[in-house]
């Protein structure tokens, strides 16, 4: 198996893609605003809820975005890759900031 860029796909990527398929299919079948709604909800809870709940929401948001970035990584170019990594790092830094500021 090879990626859209023509490079071979690792066994780890194949396994994660296979396990993720049912969840991605459900997200694809859901209304178009489901994923943006989940993202917005996690971000708002992360920003405005008490620290313990907010940090959990931010970590879940980072995990969600990381999972989606991993799945789409072979199909995107360098610019969007940088933005995906940057957004995940920024969310995690905000979570650390929430912990530090109590």
Protein described:
Helix content is 78%, strand content 0%. With 102 residues, the chain is mainly α. Helix 3 runs antiparallel to helix 4. The chain is globular and about 45 Å long. The mean pLDDT is 90.
Quick overview of this protein structure:
By secondary structure, this protein is mainly alpha-helical. The chain is built from four helices and no strands.
Largest sheet: number of strands, sense, barrel closure:
none
Tell me the β content.
under 5%
- Termini separation (Å)? 48 Å
Structural class, by secondary structure, is mainly alpha
| Element pattern in H and E | HHHH
Question: What are the SSEs and their pairings?
Answer:
Elements: H1 11-29, H2 34-48, H3 51-72, H4 78-101
Helix pairs in contact: 2-3, 3-4
List the main descriptive attributes of the protein structure presented here.
102 residues, mainly alpha, globular
